[in-house]
Amino acid sequence: EMIPPTVTSFEVEDGKVWMTQMFFVGEPEPDLVAAILAEAELADWAYESEPVEDRDWVSESQRLLAPVREGRFFVYGSHDADKAPDDTVNLLIEAGQAFGTGQHETTSCCLALIDALGTEGYAPATVLDLGTGSGVLALAAHRVWEDARVVASDIDPIAVEVAVENLAVNRAIERGIGEDRPGIAPLVADGLDAPAFAEEGPFDLVTANILAAPLIFLAPGIAGVTAKGGKVILSGILQTQADEVLAAYVAEGLTLEKKLERGDWAALQLAR
Ligand code: SAM
């Protein structure tokens, strides 16, 4: 029996190291581990196993997927459908192959900043969610700004498939989402490398929960598709990296409006 795996990436100086942890009840069969790695196209990954303390891993992994309440948003999996309140903006996001079920600080910081922008009366007509993963931020923006056109892009085609499914599921639950409205346009692209960004932009709001290194690399591109007076929300930044990321955007003419810190993470809201 295997508990759902957790995948973490660490940035090193000139690249990325990816690490995944798999928890098994009992001794893992080497053939089973090999089959799982092959299925995930990770057959050449090195692995080692060690016993861990006996805890209720099933409850712990379910707790990790507990619903998230952030500002006006309630992000939940279908196993918690009965817990969705009446007075929140409810986003159904199943745990799956794309990042973004709301629990991670990098996501919840973005949800908090989107919520606050809505409360402050900011009303973007065009939104870009770069690195959309599960589509959670695109959906959140779409619910706050009902008339906004939202482009949801990711380098990973599977993430975009998941985001499209999540959009359809949420539309089915909450009649009207995406119907008779500008809607959410999904897009597979590496950074801003697609003509669609120029065609759809400039954007009044760009959200990008990626990592510090790609955010620095993408600074000119993100600044270039942001409308004058528009806002940019950056996340996926370790607190120790925040100054470096900020400097890259200040060099592109953006100014810092807000900084949120949670755990090891920081999120920045900038204005162009
Ligand atoms: N937006 C979701 C959230 O806030 O929970 C998911 C964020 S997840 C941390 C980062 C996403 O960025 C992943 O889905 C990844 O595939 C995507 N990504 C990484 N590099 C990218 C790039 N160069 N261009 C577009 N997307 C990228």
Automatic annotation (TrEMBL):
It comes from the Bacteria. One of its GO terms (cellular component) is cytoplasm. It is found in: Cytoplasm. Its main location: cytoplasm. It catalyses: L-lysyl-[protein] + 3 S-adenosyl-L-methionine = N(6),N(6),N(6)-trimethyl-L-lysyl-[protein] + 3 S-adenosyl-L-homocysteine + 3 H(+). GO terms for molecular function: protein methyltransferase activity. S-adenosyl-L-methionine binds at T107, G131, D154, N209. This is Ribosomal protein L11 methyltransferase. The gene is prmA.
